[in-house]
Each structure stands twice: as C-alpha cells, then as structure tokens.
C-alpha cells in the first residue's frame, strides 16, 4: 500500500530553471501563490497574464502547497518572477534549496538538460517534478529509469494529458467504432513540443506503439506512428504553426470527432495538482512505464528524421 511522500500540512516547493520560450515559472508559481497583477502584467509571455486574469481569485490557487524558493538560469528572471508570483526566497544556486523545501519543480523543457538539473535533488532524496519532455535521448532515459527503479519519487508529464477538452475521450471512444486513424498538431519543435501532441493523444489510445517514421525536417516534422492495436497516428510539429496547437482528430469505423485544445489554465493546474496528490498519497497518477514509452516516441522521432525518414521501432530503444 502506498504511503505519503510528504506529510507536511503545507508543502514547500522550489521552482527551478527558466529557458527561452518557456514562461512556466511565472504561471506555475502563480497557481500556488497567487500573483501581483501589476508585476505579472510585465511578464514577457503575454498569454500568461491573459489566462490568469480570467480565473476567479478564490479558485486560482492549488491548496496545500506554496512556492517558497526560486532559481532561474538568468538571475534577473528570478527577481521578476519572485515579484510577480510573490515568492519569498531567491537562491543563488539551485542546490541551495536542499533542506529548505519538500519537493522541487524543474520548470524547463529541454530534455537533454534534465538529468543534470535533477541529479542533486534525486540524490538528496527530494521528490522531483520535471516539465515535458523528461528526456530526448536514450542515455538519459536509462538514467531516469534506473532512478525510478530505485524508488526515487520522480514525475514528468505534459499538461496536454490533462486537457479538459480531451478528457471525455480518455473514458470512451466506443461511439466511433474501432479506431483506425488519429492526428494531432502542435507548433514549435519536435524535441520540445512533440511530447505535447503525443501525451495529448496517449491517454485516449493507450500504450502499445510499435514504430515511428518522421519524414519531415527540424522545422516541419511529419511523424507517422504505428500502434499495435491496428491504427495509425500522425503528429505534425511545425515551428511557426501557432494556430495549430492541440488540434485532435479521431476517426473510427463508425464515427469521427474533431476536438481543439482551448483551456491552458485548466490543464496546467490539473497537471500540477496531480503532482501534489502524488506527494500526498504516494500513488502515481499514471504508470511510469507510460512515460518511458512516450520518451521512446520522442527519441524515435528524432532518430528517424536524422536517418532520412527510416522507420524506427521502439524495440530498438533501451530500456528494452
């Protein structure tokens, strides 16, 4: 039987890391701490205050946890986020939060940096949440796999797993008959945003993917995935296709549906709440084996593109 990982009444969190193109320290911290509207209006990602301002202040925050410490790669960013999201402590080094917090959130989305960013906290026994994608290469996937095998409390996900618009299809797609084809789109790069598309569709179709073929380019990834249950999935990740984030299509033998992703705030809040629930109960919101398969899909998409569109089988990628 699972037992709590953290038993403190109010869980103290550290928000660690900030890279170009990713404003999670602003938005995620605000979902725990609330925010100063004037300071948040200066956020360099205008979409963040836009969706935060739509939420009722009484229900904005995730109860039972607070971001008490922040560190960012550029120290000036930490000062801005601290003022906007009312974080009391700025640290000079990420390791300085050890002994001061109950868990850490690594809020960066460059997969090949995550082993190095997570290692001090994993070794210190702190629970770690890692923004998507957890990794983008086989070597690092093996490291995380070994850590989790040792019982280290590590969780990683995309907010798209928790899309309010997609959740009804997690429960059932029987009205579509037998699934034959699915597609989903995203902007930006396969390396950093392909996981959004993959994890958006994964809870609907389930594990069992067999191969990946990426016939696109670094800026225009056209990725064909084959599933063991006899259907195909196409994921498109195009650098500047901002108008195409999270457009899901499902087609079966007797019906079809088209579902656009819309509510960013709901997805992020539910994603972060799942981490807090994991700390409270010790029960994973989904099996770590699913994260392993998703990372293999990301890795296979990179390998296939680099090898001229070769069909890459997940069985080629460790852990076997």
From TrEMBL:
| Domain of life from the UniProt record | Bacteria
Gfo/Idh/MocA-like oxidoreductase N-terminal domain sequence ranges: 63-137
Signal peptide range in chain numbering: none
Name the record gives this protein: Gfo/Idh/MocA family oxidoreductase
SUPFAM superfamilies for the chain: NAD(P)-binding Rossmann-fold domains (SSF51735)
